[in-house]
Every structure is written in C-alpha cells, then in structure tokens.
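Internal ticket #5521
Category: modeling
Description: The requester needs a full-assembly model to guide mutagenesis choices. All entity lines are attached below as received. Residue total reported by intake: 226.
Assigned to: D.W.
Attached entities:
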Amino acid sequence: QKEVEQNSGPLSVPEGAIASLNCTYSDRGSQSFFWYRQYSGKSPELIMFIYSNGDKEDGRFTAQLNKASQYVSLLIRDSQPSDSATYLCAAYPGGKLIFGQGTELSVKP
Amino acid sequence: GAGVSQSPSNKVTEKGKDVELRCDPISGHTALYWYRQSLGQGLEFLIYFQGNSAPDKSGLPSDRFSAERTGGSVSTLTIQRTQQEDSAVYLCASSSSGWGFSYNEQFFGPGTRLTVL
C-alpha cells in the first residue's frame, strides 16, 4: 500500500461545477497535509495546507481533513478552465513530505 | 526575493556518462529536498538535507545516485553511469523548517529535465 494514495484521474468537470479531489494516507503520525497544484511542464506550487480536523477555506478552495479516517480532500468551487492541472496531495509525518501520485483535473468550458 | 533555482534546465546525456545537477535554495532555508518525477507520475523523494544533520538518503534508488550540500546552501545531485530509466525531471525544493515542525511548506525550483539516450 502506498503511503499517500490519490485517484490518478483524469477527473473532468464542467466549468462552474465543484471539483472534489480525494486523498488517503497510511501514517497516523502525519501532522499536516498539503495540496499542491502542478501545471503541465511546471513545478508544483502550494495551494493550501491543513493540520486540524475539519474544513479550511481559502477563496474557492476548501481543504477537509478527517484524521480518524485518514482522509484529506480538496474542493474547488466554481471551477475554471485555468484550474485544469494535476493536484498533488502530500502528508507531513516530520522531515520530508510524502506525495501521492496526483490527480489530473480537467475543467471543460 | 529569488526563489529556488536549478541548473541546467535541460540535460541530454549518453548512457553511461555521469551528470551533475545543481540546486540553489532560497536564502536562509535550512531544509533542502531532491525529488524525481517521471512522465505522468508523482514526486519520488530522493534525499533530504536539514541544516548540519546527516542527510536522509532513504529515497536514493541506487548507489549510482549521490548528493551533497556545501556550506548549508547549494546542493549537487550526481548520477553516475546514467541509465535510460534515469530520464526524468529532477526537482529541488527548500523550506525554512524541517523535522519537528508541524508545518513545512516546500518551495520548488523549475526542475532539470534529464534525458539519457
């Protein structure tokens, strides 16, 4: 079992819809969780991080964490074509980040 | 201020040759990471430096791979006797915190695309 798992996608949603990206992790010692966005041919850039159970909202993005279920998600409201990218989930058990394989999101106009 | 920089941006080499990839982290960042990303894949952790501590080399795929960090700043990743399966984008990241901190935002460089013919 991989330490951080994501559906590779592609996930396709229409413009204006809510995109839901999911991630599970195996290390219960993980302290915080990160969502990175990576455009094709570019480096990952941080969108959000979360370390407390519950929801954390930032603009159109909401991160959700459930430590009991070892589950992290990212919701993107009012999805735009510019949101089309690969989204990487990462867990931080201390020291290094453990990345999932990423979910490719495609937002269709 | 300047972000993480990497050089070269692209490297084409022949199988069996040695290559060196360079990373300049953000000034003041104590932690430095190397990752490898093959086409369409996630980030594969290679090695992690934190201050003057011994590096975490647990992700290096073989003894052909090595890395050093001089003066707590610039890092060089060396791949000896390159193989075609080494072809990938090599990403470097730095952060201002490391082990023991609950938050660790990593800032990534633009990467070096390595092609082994």
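Resolution: model delivered.
Comment from assignee: DSSP finds no helices and eleven strands in chain A.
Ticket closed.
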